[in-house]
Amino acid sequence: MAEIKEAVLVDGVRTPNFRAHAEKGWARNLRPDELLTYVYEALFERNPQVKPEDIDAVFCGTANQTGMQNDIARLGWLASGYPDSVPTNGVNQQCPSGMSCIEHACRAIMADDGNIFIASGVEDMQNVPMAMGMDFPPRIANYYDPMELPMGPTAEKIAQLYNISREDAELMAYHSHLKAAAARDAGKFADEIVPVKALDDNGEEFMCDRDQWIRDNPSLEQMAGMRPAFRPDGIVTAAISSPLTTGACATLFMSREKADELGLSYHLRYGGGAMAGCDPTIMGYGPVPAVKKLLAMKGLTIDDIDVWELNEAFGTQSLAVLRELGIAENAPFDNVNVWGGALALGHPLGESGARIVITLNNIMKTDYADAKRGVATLCGGFGNGNATLWEKV
Ligand SMILES: CC(C)(COP(=O)(O)OP(=O)(O)OC[C@H]1O[C@@H](n2cnc3c(N)ncnc32)[C@H](O)[C@@H]1OP(=O)(O)O)[C@@H](O)C(=O)NCCC(=O)NCCS
Questions:
Q1: What Rg, from alpha-carbon coordinates, does the chain have?
Q2: 166 inside domain
């Protein structure tokens, strides 16, 4: 049995996050496989020591693997013109799919099942809308109320159970936009965003290098006037929901010795990952058991983690998680989602789990350069949570 190896994050890139809308989305001219090509090409351009044929496997996370996203892991790689000798593996854990890919890659490296892996993620919520082609197993009604299973109702239920107010969730969204806009204006995303040839509001082509959903002037008054999106008497509006988004990302992982041999630099090592299940009618709770499991396995406490990336699927679910874990009570938070979260940046389902690791890496290189450990975590539709630990090398 070979010794356990170290898996290091060599690089990570993403497209901008686009509004998933046939008239208003800047990526309305693109398909999900084309977005993947952008991020794969960028990885090879930025790391010329690595050739496509050197990759041991490509993992690609996508929540809705139907239509244009049917076996997108394989077809997206082949449609990019890369060698068919490289195997691919489509992974689905709903929103944590991209994170799951990273765990597959890192565990393979640690087990000496290969040296160089790509873990990517893509979701085009315009061309492949959420729940397209979905056919719920009728027998699930023996255990859960099917009306409580879609994402919006889970965000309402968790708010009720954990006493999350609309005002607090709106405050979280407000600060998410402010932080994201400040990070964008300060050029913080420059290292991770690959410009994409997109269409502006007038239909003119432009090289887009910024996220479409960030609001420059978020307004608490405006948010307070918005109608509930999922229940007439509910509190969850579009402002406190992650918006429908299209985007792709890709990460390059290697064994530490391979990265050293190729002369590639790295800042973070995979410290472990934990998945946990929870009641699907409050799926947003998933990070709570996942983070608890991860920290217990590693002998760490919340205070040992210097910086957090928590995917903001909904403001209500994020606040419930932060309070239950004892990380924070109310926005603004300092060491959580330092450059904003999904409420502002968007949430292309299967992509986000890998995207938050890319952003965490960049935060730990710059604003939190002295941080020793970071955790990235997110919830998944129908009751999955996933959390990964990242350690500075
Ligand atoms: C909530 C939801 C139903 C709203 O969808 P929608 O009705 O298509 O609404 P949009 O996102 O287009 O927003 C409606 C309007 O409100 C606006 N709006 C959104 N957030 C706003 C804010 N913070 N302040 C002001 N206006 C806002 C939008 O810009 C849009 O107006 P526009 O078309 O003039 O630009 C949808 O975003 C959703 O389902 N989100 C959750 C997705 C999900 O479940 N993801 C998985 C999580 S686990």
A1: 20
A2: yes
Helix (H) or strand (E) holding 2: none
Structural domain includes residue 346? yes
Å from CA of 199 to ligand 1 middle: 20
DSSP conformation class of 383: T
- From CA 206, how far away is CA 198, in angstroms rounded? 5
Please classify residue 367 by burial: count the beta carbons closer than 10 Å to its beta carbon, then call 0-12 exposed, 13-18 middle and 19+ buried.
Answer: middle
pTM: 0.98
Domains contained in the chain, number: 1
Q: Could you tell me if residue 212 is inside a domain? A: no
Strands (E), 51-209: 57-61, 88-91, 116-124, 196-199, 205-208
Residue 384, domain extent: 148-187+271-392
Q: Indicate the residue type of 33.
A: D
Helix locations, 229-270, DSSP H:
256-262
Mean pLDDT of the chain: 98
| Per-residue pLDDT, 38 | 98
Give the Cα separation of 242 and 229 in Å (integer).
Answer: 12
Name which of 373, 371, 385, 360 is nearest 292 in CA terms.
Answer: 385
Residue 326 lies in a domain: yes
Q: What CATH number did the domain enclosing 324 receive?
A: 3.40.47.10
What pLDDT digit, counting tens, does each position of 24-37 carry? 999 999 999 999 99
Eight-state DSSP code of residue 272: E
For residues 270 and 276, the answer to whether their CB atoms sit within 8 Å is no
- pLDDT of 3 reads 86
Residue 379 known to be catalytic = yes
Ligand 1 site residues (CB inside 6 A) read: 95, 151, 173, 215, 218, 222-223, 229, 238-239, 241-244, 313, 347, 349, 381
What are the phi and psi torsion angles at 184 (to 5°)? -60, -50
Contact 294, 376 (CB under 8 A): no
Q: Where are the alpha helices (DSSP H) in the chain?
A: 32-46, 72-79, 97-110, 151-161, 166-185, 220-224, 256-262, 287-298, 315-325, 342-345, 349-365
Q: Tell how far the Cα of 251 is from the centroid of ligand 1, in angstroms.
A: 28
Active site residue 101: no
Q: Which of 242, 382, 386 to mutate to test the pocket of ligand 1 (most atoms within 8 A of CB)?
A: 242
* 315 Rama sector, left if φ>0, alpha if ψ -120 to 50, beta otherwise: alpha
CA of 202 to the centre of ligand 1 (A): 21
